[in-house]
């Protein structure tokens, strides 16, 4: 079996089928028996701006992307100009030969600063100013360029209308890319069939396009130089696997976990989750019988979304909403109400670049401190941060269980990386659905906020008993009070849940250690950055470092004792996260008294990559304290 | 009317507050409608009016400023068997929460919104509310009001409400009848209640109400067809343009589908098994959902 690690970039103008091109490649690679992890980078724009997928495939599990890459497949000149430098020695650039005479510097959609940077780079390298000149420069520098007459081939062989050619370019490009990597046409066609399973017309068109460009592939000059046969190998049979984005993963988890009301207001990168729930509103058993049906309500704003979800939760329905930074900001008052009223509601928050509108379509992990502190006053809440797609599924179930078990709002904290990256996962194993402590009927006057040994009072749903809720401080019945004694007791009842949660939480919910137990160095990280750290471990170890990764999962209440054990054992502790401050590192310091001095940080809106972790770690070992990462376009 | 509808919590409104009238009429309406107590939910916002659920012996949800409507919408959508009534002030529902009021008209859920309209923000010492007329100056204002007033009835027409009425807090019988009609109405309703605030609003007094309101007569509020709906809308603009405020039922439109029916058009078993009636576990385990059948497109062939 070939040990392989394939990285490829497919770029093009947004709205030009580039997303489909990426998906087709991801499907084909996954169907070829490989593990896939694909990052999608796009502008906050519908049509025209530069967008790309960075796809990584391997015969072992991958959780991050890596530079430099083996292939760059470009639909347009901006993609060539942006990504030519990402190619590794021997790497392959693929583009339409019709682009050869185009200038690299006259690209209206390209941002001015990027164009200036590009020009300086091309000048410094003497790489020319047209696609043709750059191709020649690349070839002089050990790269392979495949100039393929895509539009001509489609026009002549598929006989497509010239207006329709643009819509077929993505499949043409991806086909040649996959062929160049050694995949036979039959496998590409299987992926086409699977991608367009419900769209016969599109399927037939794309099959025809793939066939036509594949025919011409072997005659192409340049292919002789390709010595890549990494795809299309016979691989051992795999069990059933799924291909999901993080939005899909959370939606699936919520549905397994019994979600019956989802509310949302459209926002990137969260809205796809609600789409998925809407599209799978009929939950089927093995006989095809419906066993459940959640409803989804699109609210007029995020304030309404959180308030509707809380309303649903008061009726005993497992309710959740999902959003990103700006929407989460609006939900904060509602979260406080849920905290005050001990309401089990789940808020799924996908972080994106902030502050304000920030980088709406780009990655960030800068809302950790906000999530744990959101809302005025003090109240118990749980904030759980998933670090992978598998965790996202399981945690979605877990968040609903925890919400009902402790009767607190739960924030499921994710990031754009997880939301939009697509990866192969094993189907989830179903666990417990725990509904928490319920009130017994007919036991006299019901007290929604009854004092007792347990800070969690038996819960009745609206419609079952007399009960009152208020955002004001309240007595056991739920009526407004300003009595200092009741205030103190009710305050303590709410806050006592923090201790209870920490005491009862399994270690695996608090944090997970990856790597050598006898570590000397410890990378402390969270969210999608965890994947890059784990993927970097073998290389770091091969360089002689005894390093492990600690992924922190529960960030509120903070498992200080558990985390202390790990950080105090290490010689060097290094924070790794996608924000400026090092928010997790700060949180560890606040709670454990252990100051994490070394920090690897990134706030460009792009993912932390495996190679960046390796390089930054070596720089830290070389004496730097703060390493700021800048990779990716 | 039975005192059985008192929760036992002492209503802490100012003596003479219009809320007492609304409180009395509400208890009367609930009592006469004969709805099971536990099946009612009073949802309120913030301010003097927001306290009303605590005084009535039915389940109550005293929410955030301006947000009673989304809470109520979530409750009703999750458990359609509950009778959900929203109480809020004019500042709450027409100021900070107006977006929700409009959204509710578009959805047409089975919820009555009772607007306690006293023209001021009472609990914060009498600032101008969205219904205070331009150029008027209540006693706590430093200058006459520089904002024009919003008319909740016209807003209701524009937003798609299917029940609109106006009453007066001290006319208990009239208000009770309006409440009963509004609560029984299938769809979104606004009941505007003119409510004197004896502490802060020195303009809307009992005397003012006497002179500036009249009972609707010879007005058929029921919409018959599309053409009639246009006529009614025009008629309501006429009514609301008058010097004096009309009291009574202004609009009843039974033709529009409720939010519940609209949800059921997508989720076919919604009426039989709304979210609150669905089981989500079997003996502490997740339901036996077949992932490949339910989510086929995520599986790799």
Give a quick set of tags describing it.
heterodimer; A: 633 residues; alpha/beta; 8-stranded mixed beta sheet; 7-stranded mixed beta sheet; 21 helices; 40% helix; globular; B: 301 residues; two-stranded antiparallel ribbon; 11 helices; 12 strands; 35% helix
Summarize the structure.
With 633 residues, chain A is an alpha/beta fold. Chain A contains 21 helices and 24 strands.
What does this structure look like?
The complex is a heterodimer of chains A (633) and B (301). Chain A contains 21 helices and 24 strands. In chain A, helix 6 packs across helix 8 and helix 11 (302-314) packs parallel to helix 12. In chain A, strand 23 (598-602), helix 21 and strand 24 (626-629) form a beta-alpha-beta unit. Chain A is α/β, with parallel strands linked by helices and 633 residues long. In chain A, the strands form four sheets. Chain A has an eight-stranded mixed β-sheet with strand order 6-5-4-1-3-2-16-7, sandwiched between helices. Chain A has a seven-stranded mixed β-sheet with strand order 11-8-12-13-15-14-21, sandwiched between helices. Chain B has an eight-stranded mixed β-sheet, sandwiched between helices. Chain B has eleven helices and twelve strands. Chain B is α/β, with parallel strands linked by helices and 301 residues long. At the A-B interface, helix 1, strand 7, helix 9, strand 9 and strand 10 of A face strand 2, helix 3, helix 5, strand 12 and helix 11 of B.
């Amino acid at each position: 079996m070939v040990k392989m690690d394939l990285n490829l970039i497919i770029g093009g103008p947004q709205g030009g089928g580039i997303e489909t091109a990426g998906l087709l490649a991801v499907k084909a690679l996954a169907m070829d028996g490989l593990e896939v992890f694909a990052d999608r980078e796009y502008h906050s724009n519908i049509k025209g701006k530069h967008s790309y997928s960075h796809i990584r495939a391997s015969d072992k599990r991958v959780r991050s992307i890596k530079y430099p890459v083996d292939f760059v497949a470009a639909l347009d000149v901006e993609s060539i100009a942006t990504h030519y430098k990402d190619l590794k020695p021997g790497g392959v650039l693929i583009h339409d030969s019709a682009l050869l005479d185009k200038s690299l510097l006259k690209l209206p959609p390209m941002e001015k600063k990027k164009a200036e940077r590009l020009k300086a780079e091309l000048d410094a390298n003497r790489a020319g100013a047209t696609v043709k000149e750059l191709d020649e420069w690349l070839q002089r520098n050990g790269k392979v360029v495949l100039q393929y007459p895509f539009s001509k081939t489609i026009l002549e062989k598929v006989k497509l209308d010239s207006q329709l050619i643009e819509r077929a370019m993505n499949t043409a490009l991806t086909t040649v890319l996959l062929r160049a990597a050694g995949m036979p046409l039959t496998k590409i066609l299987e992926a086409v069939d699977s991608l367009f399973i419900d769209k016969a017309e599109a399927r037939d068109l794309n099959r025809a396009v793939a066939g036509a460009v594949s025919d011409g592939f072997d005659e192409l000059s340049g292919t002789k130089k390709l010595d890549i046969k990494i795809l299309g190998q016979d691989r051992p049979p795999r069990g059933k696997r799924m291909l999901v984005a993080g939005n899909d993963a959370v939606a699936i988890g919520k549905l397994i976990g019994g979600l019956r009301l989802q509310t949302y207001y459209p926002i990137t990168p969260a809205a796809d989750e609600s789409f998925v729930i809407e599209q799978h509103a009929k939950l089927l058993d093995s006989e095809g019988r419906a066993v459940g049906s959640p409803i989804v309500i699109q609210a007029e704003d995020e304030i309404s979304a959180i308030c509707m979800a809380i309303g649903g939760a008061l009726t005993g329905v497992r309710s959740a909403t999902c959003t990103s930074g700006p929407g989460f900001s609006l939900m904060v008052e509602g979260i406080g109400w849920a905290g005050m009223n001990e309401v089990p509601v789940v808020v799924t928050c996908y972080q994106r670049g902030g502050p304000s509108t920030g980088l709406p379509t780009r990655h960030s992990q800068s809302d950790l401190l906000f999530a744990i502190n959101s809302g005025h006053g003090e109240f118990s809440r749980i904030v759980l941060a998933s670090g992978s797609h598998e965790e996202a599924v399981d945690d979605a179930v877990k968040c609903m269980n925890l919400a009902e078990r402790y009767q607190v709002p739960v924030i499921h904290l994710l990031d754009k990386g997880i939301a939009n990256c697509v990866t192969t996962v094993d189907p989830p194993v179903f666990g417990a659905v725990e509904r928490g402590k319920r009130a017994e009927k007919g036991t006299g006057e019901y007290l929604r906020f009854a004092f007792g040994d347990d800070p969690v009072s038996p819960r009745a749903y609206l419609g079952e008993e007399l009960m009152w809720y208020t955002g004001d401080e309240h007595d056991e019945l739920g009526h407004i009070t300003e009595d200092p004694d009741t205030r103190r007791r009710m305050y303590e009842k709410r806050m006592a849940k923090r201790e209870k949660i920490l005491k009862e939480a399994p270690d695996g919910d608090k944090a997970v250690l990856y790597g050598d137990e006898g570590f000397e160095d410890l990378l402390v990280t969270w969210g999608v950055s965890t994947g890059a750290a784990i993927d970097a471990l073998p290389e770091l170890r091969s360089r002689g470092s005894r390093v492990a990764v600690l992924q922190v999962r529960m960030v509120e209440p903070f498992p200080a004792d558990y985390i202390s054990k790990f950080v105090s054992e290490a010689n060097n502790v290094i924070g790794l996260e996608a924000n400026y401050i090092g928010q997790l590192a700060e949180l560890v310091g606040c709670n454990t008294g252990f100051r994490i001095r070394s920090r690897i940080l990134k706030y460009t809106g792009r993912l932390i990559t495996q190679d960046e972790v390796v390089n930054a770690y070596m720089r830290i070992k070389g004496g730097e304290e703060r390493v700021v990462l800048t990779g990716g376009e | 009317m039975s005192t059985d509808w008192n929760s036992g919590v002492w209503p802490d409104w100012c003596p003479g507050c219009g809320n007492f009238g609304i409180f009395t009429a509400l208890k009367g309406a609930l009592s006469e409608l004969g709805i099971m107590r536990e099946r009612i939910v009073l949802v309120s916002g913030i301010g003097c009016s927001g306290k009303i659920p605590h005084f009535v012996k039915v389940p109550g949800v005293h929410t955030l400023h301006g947000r009673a409507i989304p809470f109520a919408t979530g409750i009703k959508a999750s458990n359609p068997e509950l009778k959900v009534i929203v109480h809020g002030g004019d500042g709450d529902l027409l100021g900070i929460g107006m977006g929700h009021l409009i959204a509710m008209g578009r959805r047409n859920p089975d919820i009555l919104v009772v607007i306690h309209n006293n023209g001021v923000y009472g609990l914060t010492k009498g600032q101008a509310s969205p219904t205070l007329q331009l150029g008027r100056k209540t006693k706590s204002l430093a200058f006459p009001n520089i904002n024009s007033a919003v008319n909740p009835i016209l807003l209701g027409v524009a937003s798609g409400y299917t029940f609109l009425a106006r009453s007066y807090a001290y006319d208990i019988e009239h208000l009770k009848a309006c409440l009963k009609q509004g609560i029984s109405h299938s769809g979104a309703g606004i009941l505007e209640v003119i409510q004197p605030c004896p502490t802060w609003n020195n303009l809307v007094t009992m005397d003012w109400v006497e002179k500036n309101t009249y009972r609707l007569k010879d007005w058929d509020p029921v919409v018959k067809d599309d053409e009639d709906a246009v006529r009614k809308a025009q008629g309501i603009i006429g009514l609301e343009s008058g010097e004096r405020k009309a009291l009574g039922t202004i609009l009843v439109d039974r033709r529009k589908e409720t939010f519940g029916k609209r949800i059921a058009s997508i989720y076919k078993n919604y009426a039989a098994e709304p979210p609150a009636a669905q089981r989500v576990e079997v003996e502490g385990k997740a339901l036996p959902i077949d992932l490949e059948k339910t989510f086929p497109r995520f599986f790799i062939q």
